[in-house]
Amino acid sequence: MEELNGGRLTFGQLLASIRESEEESLAKSSQRLGVTRQHLHQIEKGEKRVSPERALRSANQLGHSDVYFVQLALQDLVNDSGLSATVEVNVA
Fold it and tell me: How many other C-beta atoms lie within 10 A of the C-beta of residue 64?
């Protein structure tokens, strides 16, 4: 996936990919996720980040892996901080 993406997948890119694969409009997806259309657009473009809690809710609302969603959200935060680290989330 990283080769296709040109780097690590971000949380926003994941949401955009899911939305596009389901042929869903930005407005419809934002409604499903309980955020504004503008906010979702900013997340998809990497202009806004989400908390692990928001990532978990998004995974549940979209019916996807909560562990992967939380991992990507945390990785985005780590990357933004400038740390050179990889986040790994395990089910407790």
Answer: 14
Whether residue 5 contacts residue 13, with contact meaning beta carbons closer than 8 Å, is answered with: yes
Predicted confidence (pLDDT) at residue 22 exceeds the cutoff of 80: yes
Supply the DSSP string of 34-90, one letter for each residue: TS-HHHHHHHHTTSS---HHHHHHHHHHHT--HHHHHHHHHHHHHHHHT--------
The domain total for the chain is: 1
Here the tokens at position 92 are 């407790």
Domain enclosing residue 36, as ranges? 2-81
Q: 5: pLDDT confidence band, cut at 50, 70 and 90?
A: low
pTM for this one? 0.88
